[in-house]
Every structure is written in structure tokens, then in C-alpha cells.
Design brief:
homodimer, 75 residues, mainly alpha, 434 Repressor (Amino-terminal Domain), 5 helices, 0% strand, DNA-binding
DNA sequence: ATTACAACGGACTATGAGTCACTTTTTGGT
DNA sequence: ACCAAAAAGTGACTCATAGTCCGTTGTAAT
């Protein structure tokens, strides 16, 4: 699976856990509502600066965000 | 510190540990040597797709790459 | 029927990807 | 210490795409 898709899935999971709408998360992360959709569906190749805002908007950090089965398959 | 700089420092650390030159790593990651310099010095806001190539060029993965003190300070 | 949410599209602007010629710093050998 | 070569950094550039802003469509719940 592409890194885009893995990241999108991870965001979706964490967002649902927080019971946030895409729009609410987009607002916290200061990105466009429609852009968040693109990120979650794996269509977007985000930059680390935007990913940083999204991750913090989700109330977590890089270490925790990537500490997931999806991200340690390839070594 | 900016996320760019943190990532640059982390790459430098892992690259040195592998005793690789920027050029050698750049080759593995399929990016230009001068581009690698820009990333390591924190001047570039890389996309996750490029970061993916660099991380794998370093022989590691996202989970391990971000499993570092630098990345769990803010929560 | 209305409301809230998610996906999608097109047009647009800002900025990242990728490359080059050149300079500076670091390294190792004698 | 000196010198040459390797390694790392800089500025400027083109082209692709990241990211925004307008809207529409589909779905589910009320």
C-alpha cells in the first residue's frame, strides 16, 4: 500500500476515535476541508509541515502516529 | 525546532551511523545529492513520498525513524 | 424537507521536486 | 603545515504538484 494511503487510514482511525468530523479536524490543523478529504482517501502526498499540523490536531505526535502496525512492515 | 530541522537531524544521525555520504544516501533514495543537503539542513519541506524513499534508503521504516526523543516532545 | 457529513471537480496560487554550476568545508596523505 | 580530493553547502532556476476556494452530489439521520 502507498504511504499516502497508510497515512490516510491512520488519520481516519485516530479522527474517528476522537469523534471529530473532517471539517473539525481540518480546522484544527488549519487546512482546507476538501484537502482533508483528499488526505484521508490517500489521494494527497502531504508535506511534513502539514502532516505535523494534522498530527497535532489529532492530539498526538509523530512518534505515536507512526507507532502502528501499518508502518513497520517494510524494514 | 521546526519539523524540517528535526527530520534533517534525524537523517544525519542515521546516515552517520551507517557511514554513508550524502551522495551515497541520495543515490539509494533516488534524489539529487544537493537535494539531500537541503533536506538534512532543514531547508526543505519534504513530502511523505520523498521521505519514504529516504527512510528506506536508510534501511529503516517510519515507525523506527520517528521513534526518537526529538519526536515525542510535543503531545 | 432539512441538516450534517463526506467525496468529488475545476480553476486557481503557492510552493515543493528536481537539477545545475559553483563555492566552501572537511578529510586524509605526505 | 600543505595540498588534493572528497564531501557538503548555496543560489537560482523550471516544472510539477501541494494546497485553497468555489461549488455540486450522495448518503444517512432527524
Amino acid at each position: 500500500m502507498s504511504i499516502n494511503k497508510k497515512i490516510g487510514k491512520r488519520i481516519l482511525t485516530l479522527r474517528k476515535a476522537q469523534k471529530l468530523s473532517q471539517e473539525a479536524l481540518a480546522h484544527k490543523a488549519d487546512v482546507d476541508r476538501t484537502y482533508m478529504t483528499g488526505v484521508e482517501t490517500g489521494k494527497r502526498n502531504v508535506t511534513v509541515r502539514v502532516l505535523d499540523r494534522i498530527i497535532h490536531g489529532l492530539g498526538t505526535n509523530f512518534a505515536t502516529f507512526f507507532n502502528d502496525k501499518e508502518f513497520d512492515d517494510e524494514k
